[in-house]
């Protein structure tokens, strides 16, 4: 197929919008009740080479006799572009809308009411702080109860954030002194502070009293409005990368406006996502271990505001029973409480799926709210909760052949099912066949310490093959390793399947959604257990599906997925005919000193980590033994490497190391270098370039 046709298919798949957030506002309409649902969407535009954001609003009217039955959905309004918005939040009582907007190099705080723009502050011109944080790890925008103050996180001015050590001046007084940042994807963030803007006076003040060894994040007002709550990330003795890492030491702090600060959560744990109940009596948050797996099953803790006692609402699930809840692996949405403050709603990985769950505080019982939860032929493989307000849930649903769909439904009484209503279907669906596979390791592949674990995969292929011959299979491996390929819409998978290829997305042992034991089983076993799992999944699907061509196999993946791709073509050199790897780990020993998550470099190979660790010959030898580079001499499959020049997680010199080895042996290899991109290769133009080159590489060698 010609490059233009390939790019056309990619444009069709990648240009479909997806809802990323939602807000619900209640309306009183006489004896009826109404709701407005405002969803914000993201859409890639290949012409601009950027992601557009727009909002769309629906009005729902309930039955006069049953306020939890939607009687009428009025036609939605037009799609309204959202230009430059970094953060936004509506006030709970008066319905004011606060927006932090980027324009012409300045960050503005806008307040909108029913008559239009009521106030605008140029935060940059006030010089009270640096840039406002808008990422998921630190960012927040919280209204006070009186709705006259807003709380947010921003970079402290250098003069205020100067760090000193042994009498030396810090980065506040000498710009040549090195300032740490928070790693991959957070390279412009170093010293966050808490700030409050008084909307009546138009002044911005920095809150004092944050402990000097932590960086504040995810802040919200505490009940009464005289104190704030925040997550404090430990940054001593030095900062470690935060992105994709839920194992960083942190705690929940309460900071009074007079500067008194106290810690509310357990010591030496990792916490995130503090969410206060509507009645102000209970705070829930996620909690997990420090170090070890970079992402793991977490417990849901609840803090009683009156008694000051903490208890576990949902514990870590070590090994889920068949068909039951598998644990919490994902962040809580900003609004996750039922109206009566008795239930918490969230979405999470669940084996090869993602589902919406609710836990009742009174019984601690967990129920799944997704349609056809136990039905393998269910329409949607992924359910992601965007928000819940006054018991009205807004979710994004998708599957490998169905792009993101916006749906709503009321939180039912315990034991009842949700009546889901679709607000916006995708513009197109795709004629693709998909199914979920459960895979069992052989006795020889079983993990003795964590025996009896299985894993899974998702197979996607054309419903009508383009040719009569058998279908080539592309093995697609997720990174992490502690992440997941749910049965959801995936642009790369859909594009490859539209081009006539079958795609197998493997959730090897160590993936999220299969219990904490599965995650722990991979520690010290990378390069072996995960490699064998992927190969076992491939052999299983070839045995079960006679339409697949075992002689035309390729493997692709990024980060740890690239690590496994390169392992597979080295350990099974006659099995795969092509490989495409994005920012792969090639030599864990040489990566040690360049990665922003040095702790994971030790933990992944089964070694304990401490901040004062000095590499030993034995540790480096262990890392090397588990790396793909030791199998490089056996590689026969042509290799396409795609590297981000600004990758802080996996240095691009990792890919270059393999490139030079293969070049020296006259093995087919091609390297694409993206100087402005990072680990995820997330720029719109980069993703399009990677897809096109991957397809051309597969066409050439399959």
From TrEMBL:
InterPro entries per record: 6-blade_b-propeller_TolB-like, AARE_N, AB_hydrolase_fold, Peptidase_S9_cat
Domain (Peptidase S9 prolyl oligopeptidase catalytic) ranges: 494-702
Subcellular location per the Swiss-Prot or TrEMBL entry: Cytoplasm
A biological process term (GO) from this entry: proteolysis
CC annotations in GO: cytoplasm
Domain Acylamino-acid-releasing enzyme N-terminal: 35-427
Keyword Hydrolase: yes
Reactions catalysed according to its record: Cleavage of an N-acetyl or N-formyl amino acid from the N-terminus of a polypeptide
UniProt key word Isomerase: no
One Pfam family, short name: APEH_N
Major site of localization recorded for this protein: cytoplasm
Subunit-structure text: Homotetramer.
Protein name as annotated: Acylamino-acid-releasing enzyme
Origin species: Myripristis murdjan
């Amino acid at each position: 197929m010609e490059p233009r046709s390939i790019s056309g298919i990619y444009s069709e798949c990648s240009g479909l919008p997806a809802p990323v957030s939602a807000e619900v506002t209640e309306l009183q309409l006489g004896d009826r009740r109404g709701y407005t649902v405002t969803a914000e969407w993201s859409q890639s535009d290949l012409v601009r080479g950027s992601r557009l954001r727009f909002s769309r609003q629906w009005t729902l009217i309930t039955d006069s006799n049953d306020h939890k039955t939607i009687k009428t959905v009025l036609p939605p309004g037009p799609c309204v572009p959202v230009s430059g918005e970094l953060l936004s939040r509506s006030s709970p009582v008066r319905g004011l809308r606060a927006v932090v907007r980027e324009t012409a190099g300045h960050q503005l705080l806008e307040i909108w009411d029913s008559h239009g723009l009521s106030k605008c502050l140029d935060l940059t011109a006030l010089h009270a702080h640096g840039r406002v944080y808008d990422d998921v790890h630190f960012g927040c925008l919280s209204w006070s109860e009186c709705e006259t103050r807003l709380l947010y996180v921003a970079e402290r001015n250098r003069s205020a954030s100067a760090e000193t050590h042994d009498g030396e001046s810090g980065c506040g007084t000498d710009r040549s002194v090195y300032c740490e940042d928070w790693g991959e994807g957070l390279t412009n963030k170093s010293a966050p502070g808490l700030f409050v803007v008084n909307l009546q006076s138009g002044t911005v003040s920095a809150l004092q009293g944050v402990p000097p060894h932590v960086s504040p994040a995810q802040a919200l007002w505490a009940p009464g409005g005289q104190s704030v709550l925040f997550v404090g990330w430990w940054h001593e003795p030095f900062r470690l990368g935060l992105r994709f890492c839920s194992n960083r030491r942190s705690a929940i702090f309460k900071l009074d406006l007079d500067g008194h600060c106290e810690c509310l959560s357990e010591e030496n744990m990792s916490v995130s996502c503090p969410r206060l109940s509507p009645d102000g009596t209970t705070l829930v948050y996620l909690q997990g271990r420090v170090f070890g797996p970079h992402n793991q099953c977490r417990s849901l803790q609840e803090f009683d505001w009156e008694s000051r006692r903490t208890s576990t609402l949902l514990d870590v699930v070590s090994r889920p029973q068949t068909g039951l809840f598998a644990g919490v692996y994902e962040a809580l949405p900003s609004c996750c409480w039922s109206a009566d403050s008795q239930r918490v709603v969230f979405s999470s990985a669940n084996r090869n799926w993602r589902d919406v769950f609710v836990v009742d505080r009174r019984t601690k019982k967990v129920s799944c709210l997704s349609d056809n939860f136990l039905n393998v032929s269910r329409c949607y493989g992924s359910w992601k909760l965007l928000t819940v307000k006054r018991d009205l849930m807004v979710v994004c649903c998708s599957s490998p052949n169905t792009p993101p769909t916006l749906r709503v439904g009321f939180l039912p009484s315990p034991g009842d099912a949700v009546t889901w209503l679709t607000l916006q279907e995708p513009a197109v669906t795709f004629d693709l066949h998909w199914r979920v596979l459960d895979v069992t390791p052989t006795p020889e592949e079983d993990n003795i310490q964590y025996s009896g674990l299985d894993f899974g995969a998702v197979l996607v292929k054309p419903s009508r093959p383009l040719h009569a011959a058998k279908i080539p299979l592309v093995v697609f491996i997720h990174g992490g390793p502690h992440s997941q390929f749910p049965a959801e819409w995936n642009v790369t998978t859909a594009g490859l399947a539209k081009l006539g290829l079958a795609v197998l997305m493997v959730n090897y042992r160590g993936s999220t959604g299969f219990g904490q034991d599965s995650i722990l089983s991979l520690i010290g076993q990378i390069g072996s257990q995960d490699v064998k799992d992927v190969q076992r999944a491939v052999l299983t699907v070839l045995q079960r599906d006679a339409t697949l061509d075992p002689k035309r196999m390729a493997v692709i993946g990024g980060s740890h997925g690239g690590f496994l791709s390169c392992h597979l073509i080295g350990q099974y050199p006659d099995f795969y005919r092509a490989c495409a790897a994005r920012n792969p780990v090639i030599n864990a020993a040489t990566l040690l000193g360049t990665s922003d998550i040095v702790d994971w470099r030790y933990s992944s190979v089964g070694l304990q980590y401490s901040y004062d660790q000095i590499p030993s010959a034995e540790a480096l030898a262990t890392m090397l033994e588990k790396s793909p580079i030791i199998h490089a001499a056996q590689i026969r499959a042509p290799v396409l490497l795609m590297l981000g020049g600004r990758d802080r997680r996996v240095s691009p010199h990792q890919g270059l190391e393999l490139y030079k080895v293969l070049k020296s042996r006259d093995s087919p290899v091609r390297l694409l270098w993206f100087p402005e991109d990072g680990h995820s290769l997330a720029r719109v133009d980069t993703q399009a370039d990677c897809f096109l080159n991957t397809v051309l590489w597969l066409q050439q060698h399959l």
